[in-house]
């Protein structure tokens, strides 16, 4: 049997909402604007110290955002000829906003994938 080529929509939803991968009800993260994962789920008591996403989310974001933003920036340059400082401001702010906005969900998605495919006991 071939492995599934498309991501599991349920895992994507769990990651996007930053929820516990087992009960899908409590937040994976400690309160506040942080990337710190809780020690355990307050709802189902799943211990999150087995998870280790390491640099995975940041590396994926570098590749995904670079793949998306660089061609768009090149197209804008050839179509509109913005000054260099406008490119630096626009693409810098956009890259920073997309990174901050998607890093937590991507880390939660990777932890959900680890929960699904690894021995968590
Ligand atoms: Zn839970």
Written overview of the protein:
The structure is a single chain. The protein is an all-alpha fold. The chain has one domain. 55% of the residues lie in helices and 0% in strands. Helix 1 (9-16) packs across helix 3 (84-117). The longest helix has 34 residues, at 84-117.
Which descriptors apply to this entry?
121 residues, 3 helices, 0% strand
Q: What is the secondary structure topology, with strand pairs?
A:
Layout: H1 9-16, H2 56-80, H3 84-117
Helix pairs in contact: 1-3, 2-3
Bound molecules: zinc ion (ZN).
The site of zinc ion has 8 residues, from loops.
Outline:
With 121 residues, the chain is an all-alpha fold. The chain has helices at residues 9-16, 56-80, 84-117.
The backbone outline, from C-alpha atoms, is elongated
| Largest sheet: number of strands, sense, barrel closure | none
Cα-atom radius of gyration: 18 Å
Give the tally of β-strands: 0
Unreliable spans: none
Strand content of the residues, in percent?
under 5%
Return the domain count: 1
Estimated structural class: mainly alpha
Q: What's the mean pLDDT score?
A: 91
Secondary-structure element sequence?
HHH
Helical proportion? Answer: 55-70%
**Count of discrete alpha- or pi-helical segments spanning 4 or more residues:** 3
The distinct bound ligands, ions and cofactors come out as: zinc ion
Give the distance, in angstroms, between the N- and C-terminal Cα atoms. 27 Å
């Amino acid at each position: 049997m071939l492995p599934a080529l498309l991501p599991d929509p349920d895992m994507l939803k769990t990651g996007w909402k930053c929820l516990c991968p087992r009960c899908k009800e409590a937040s994976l993260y400690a309160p506040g604007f942080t990337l710190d994962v809780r020690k355990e789920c307050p709802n189902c008591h799943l211990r999150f110290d087995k998870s280790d996403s390491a640099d995975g989310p940041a590396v994926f974001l570098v590749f995904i955002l670079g793949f998306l933003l660089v061609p768009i920036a090149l197209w804008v340059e050839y179509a509109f000829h913005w000054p260099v400082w406008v490119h630096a401001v626009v693409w810098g702010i956009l890259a920073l906003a997309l990174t901050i906005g998607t890093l937590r969900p991507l880390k939660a998605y990777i932890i959900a994938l680890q929960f699904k495919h690894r021995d968590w006991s």
